[in-house]
Amino acid sequence: MNINLDKNKIVLGISGGVDSTTAALLLLEKGYEVYGLYFNIHHDGEEGRIAALKALTEAYKAVKPEIPTVTVENRYSIYKDVKQLFNEIVVSDFVNEYLDGRTPNPCIVCNPSIKFRLLIDAANEVGAYYIATGHYADTYTDNESGKSYIKASSSKKDQSYMLYRLPQEVVKRVVFPLASFSDKDKIREIAENMGMSNSDKKDSQEICFIENNRTHGDFIDDWTGNTGKLLTLKEGNFINREGTVLGKHKGVVNYTIGQRKGLGIALGKPAFVTELNPDNNTVVLGENEELLKTNVIIDRLFFAETDGSDIPSDLEGKELTGKIRYAAPRARAKVLKGNEQGTVMVMFENPQRAMTPGQSLVLYDGDIVIGGGRIIKVL
């Protein structure tokens, strides 16, 4: 890393949403020279670029009105078009995971490989030491070891789960201006009081690279170019665990573990997706109790202590908590080495509902994110 990087300069990932806009306001108020990075990954790139630029210029106008808008646009706004790279890394993984009967989280792939990589590269280009985003998360540095860790924030929207794969070079340089805010309403209030036009903009809920009027199944069908010819895109059978056919499904890719709504089948009692079988194109339905499991195997490991897939020497048997999906609460768990290279088994103290292959299981020591991996098998 360039030793001449300026710690008064910071590159902020800015999307045009209220979180990153408020982050810009807070950083400017602290005296940082803020560069806004917007990167285009999909269909509405120009619309997104304009929204991001507007947010950045409004933030500068509110906090540093002496800086002309043209200077903000020409000096402090950075634009990168990374559609091809995003497709190669994030979208291809997303599609392949669904075709293999897993339910992926593309943000977890994007963050270390695209978003934060671009932020670091942009910071190095403009001579900035720090990078920032509008995530609800925090960091912690162990003074003894010098290691930096992602830390859960106090917010109900805590997003530390999404950031568990960030390497040391990123975590040591990242700033999360929203770390101390526990309520999104306060963020909107700050933006409104500072005159930001996006203060009431709704949060994005969908997968960012899929248009709002389309399902991920539609997207996968188009992406593969097979127009329904792939087995997991075809209609198949709903079955119970004994193999009895219960009805027809619309393609394995359209379902996820724990799903109840949208099955289009009436069995006279609540039915849930308990298993996906892409090899024979069946979806297993069962009762809610069948979704309660205690053990999982994870791969694609990443641990902060080793800054990679190597398993920390003191991890096995340690009292930790685990989070099986973004919206799930943390639950007490222990880790054992897996039977296969590059895997570990995570054993929860109490059964967890609908642990889903393809989702990440993130491990915490207190509020500190120590690592995690992709769920590949539920036991």
Describe the protein's architecture and organization.
The chain is built from 8 helices and 17 strands. A hairpin with a 4-residue loop joins strand 10 (272-277) and strand 11. The radius of gyration is 22 Å and the shape is globular. Helix 1 (18-29) runs parallel beside helix 2. The protein has helices at residues 18-29, 45-63, 69-76, 83-99, 106-126, 168-171, 184-193, 216-224; strands at 6-13, 33-40, 77-81, 128-132, 138-141, 148-151, 174-175, 236-239, 245-249, 272-277, 282-286, 292-303, 320-323, 331-337, 344-353, 360-365, 368-378. It is α/β, with parallel strands linked by helices. The chain folds into 3 domains: 6-193, Rossmann fold (3-Layer(aba) Sandwich), CATH 3.40.50; 225-286, SH3 type barrels (Roll), CATH 2.30.30; 292-378, Elongation Factor Tu (Ef-tu), domain 3. The longest helix is centred in the first third of the chain and has 21 residues, at 106-126. It has a 6-stranded antiparallel β-barrel. A 5-stranded parallel β-sheet has the order 3-2-1-4-7, sandwiched between helices. A 4-stranded mixed β-sheet has the order 9-8-11-10, with no helix packed on it. The relative contact order is 0.12.
Sheet with the most strands, sense and barrel status: 6 strands, antiparallel, barrel
* Shape field: globular
Q: What separation lies between the terminal Cα atoms?
A: 44 Å
CATH-scheme architecture of the largest domain? 3-Layer(aba) Sandwich
The tally of structural domains comes to 3
Structural class: alpha/beta
Query: What is the number of E strands?
Result: 17
Q: Give the spatial strand order of the biggest sheet.
A: 12-15-14-13-16-17
Order of helices and strands: EHEHHEHHEEEHEHHEEEEEEEEEE
Binned, the helix content reads 25-40%
- Spell out the CATH superfamily of the largest domain: HUPs
CATH topology of the largest domain: Rossmann fold
Looking at how many chains there are and whether they match, the oligomeric state comes to: single chain
How many helices in DSSP terms? 8
Low-pLDDT windows of residues: none
CATH class of the largest domain: Alpha Beta
**Average pLDDT metric:** 94
Radius of gyration: 22 Å
| SS strand fraction | 25-35%
